[in-house]
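Example 3.2
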Amino acid sequence: MLSFAAICLVLVSAMHSWLGGRDLIDPICRLPDVPVILGSRRNAVLTLKFGWHFLSLIWMVLAALLLRLEMSAAGFPQLSLLALAAQFGVCGAIALIASWGRHLSWVVFFPLALALAAAGWGLT
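Structure, written as tokens:
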């Protein structure tokens, strides 16, 4: 059943990212009256697009964790924490680089990634 759930997550993630990005987010980003966020229209568009696709990334990580859990529960808590740490580290890096530091989500994503990694390595 966990494999079925993982497949469902992968499918919904792909459809969300591809169709939602194409049919919802892209048309919104092309509107002439997209509000200025973080100093520019560009940053508003990046915030919408990255926020949309980050959700798809979260579902993909969750699918991978479900597949791993189905194979063996041994070491699963540690793997889960480290996978989530990696995911939030990537999200933080993308937010920092793409927005040139203006979108402050990286301020939360990096400490969150470090806390999850520390817990995964048994440092807490």
